[in-house]
Design a protein that fits this description.
Elements (H helix, E strand, L loop, with lengths): L2 H20 L4 E10 L2 E8 L4 E4 L2 E4 L5 H9 L4 E8 L2 E7 L4 E7 L28 H6 L14 H21 L5 E7 L5 H13 L3 E8 L2 H14 L4 E5 L13 E5 L4 H12 L4 E5 L16 H4 L2 H22 L2 E7 L10 E7 L5 H14 L4 H6 L5
Parallel strand pairs: 8-9, 8-11, 9-10, 11-12
Antiparallel strand pairs: 1-2, 1-5, 2-3, 3-4, 5-6, 6-7, 12-14, 13-14
Helix pairs in contact: 1-2, 4-5, 9-10
Length: 388
């Protein structure tokens, strides 16, 4: 290639080097192929080492100096293909003696394999996390077999995950307004299935920058999540073994998640979301033990003498009080069914958006209910409702 073409190539690569530096957490690989006659020589830029491997040699080169390196080498060859592979897309630069071209490819091109839907329990719906597109992810979290089929014992999990993404979709759009990177904190993250799925969906489908923090007391599940993130190349994640009562993030948090945290662990997560002034909170509560042993309401004694009614009322009271306390802290709250009650009775999803400062009316209503039922919910202390 002549010098004029190589100078044009260097300008194009300068632009891409800036993109690499700005989006380093989302870059999968940088590779290139030089061609002279029938001979092809492949090379790669190692992001972790800041080095180039080419022609059997490894050479330390910063990202900023990569355009100079490539354009100088190009003088010795007939043509070049330079590929910057990101999560969900790729940029391909080609150069020869006549011109330099740039093309962007959407990597989510593989069509959905209809054969995976032969099992009647896989719903006939427009999945957001599609088989065919998200196979690497779904295999890594155990939903798919090696052949790309949904495992029979993971059909329900797959449906639940996809439905949760559907429910959080509008929330992501709302909190990302005016925000360069959406940060999501998953409290009691466990095996982090949902965290990985959301990472894929936000970055690769919605094309928004995101960062995830998973916190769980179990060092075992944290190590497992770290390994999965590494295999998937999800560098925009961190997993921390800690108690959410004591955890303090080092960055702003936009959304706090809590799924099936047992009893007052849900309250710990809600309290953390409020203290962090997160834009949104989303939780699926699990068992409700705390208020079951506390609440009293003499007028209902003739009904609540039946244990099943007493337990169901405790569930409603617990999540109702949680919703009211969130409202008192300036959140707009909606409560919906997460999944069918036929699958599990623990199917309530609480969604909260921060819309204002404290709501004194909601706080007054809460105080009246607390006195009426003789209850002292833990969430009150985690939030510190009396603090200005």
């Amino acid at each position: 290639m002549n010098k004029g073409i190589c100078d044009k190539l260097k300008l194009v690569l300068w632009g891409l080097s800036g993109r690499i530096e700005e989006n380093i957490d989302y870059i999968r690989q940088v590779k290139f192929t030089f061609v002279t006659g029938l001979k092809k020589i492949e090379g790669e830029y190692l992001l972790d080492k800041k080095a180039v491997i080419f022609n059997g040699k490894e050479e330390d080169i910063t990202i900023g100096n990569l355009p100079d390196y490539i354009s100088k080498e190009a003088l010795n060859y007939d043509s070049l293909e330079f590929v910057l592979e990101e999560r969900g897309s790729a940029v391909v630069v080609t150069a020869d003696a006549k011109e330099v071209k740039t093309k962007k490819l959407d990597k989510l091109e593989k069509k959905e394999d209809k054969s995976v839907f032969n099992t009647s329990q896989v719903l006939k719906r427009n999945y957001l996390i599609k088989i065919g597109e998200a196979d690497d992810l779904l295999r890594e979290i155990g939903v798919l077999t090696k052949e790309g089929k949904v495992k029979n014992d993971m059909i329900r999990k797959y449906n639940q995950i996809d439905h949760f993404v559907e429910l959080i979709d509008s929330m992501i759009d709302e909190v990302s307004k005016g925000t360069e990177t959406v940060t999501i904190l998953d409290c009691g993250c466990g095996k982090s299935y949902l965290t990985f799925v959301l990472n894929y969906y936000i970055k690769e489908k919605k094309k928004k920058n995101c960062y995830f923090i998973g916190v769980d007391r179990s060092e075992e599940v944290i190590e497992s999540s770290k390994k999965i993130a590494k295999k998937l190349g999800y560098k925009n994640m961190e997993f921390i073994a800690d108690d959410i009562n004591f955890y303090e993030p080092s960055r702003r948090v936009d959304i706090v998640l809590s799924l099936h945290a047992c009893d007052t662990a849900t309250d710990m997560a809600l309290g953390l979301g409020v203290r962090l002034k997160s834009k949104a909170i989303m939780c699926v509560p699990c068992c409700h033990k705390e208020l079951l042993s506390q609440y009293r309401f003499k007028e209902f004694d003739s009904i609540l003498k039946h244990g099943i009614f007493k337990t169901k009322f405790a569930d409603i009271l617990t999540d109702g009080v949680r919703s009211l306390l969130l409202e008192s802290q300036g959140y707009k709250v909606s409560v919906v069914e997460y999944i069918s009650p036929l699958e599990t009775p623990k199917n309530i999803l609480i969604r909260a958006y921060k819309v204002s400062d404290k709501n004194e009316k909601a706080l007054d209503e809460y105080m009246k209910l607390r006195e009426m039922f003789s209850i002292y919910p833990s969430l009150e202390t985690y939030i510190d409702v009396y603090e200005d």
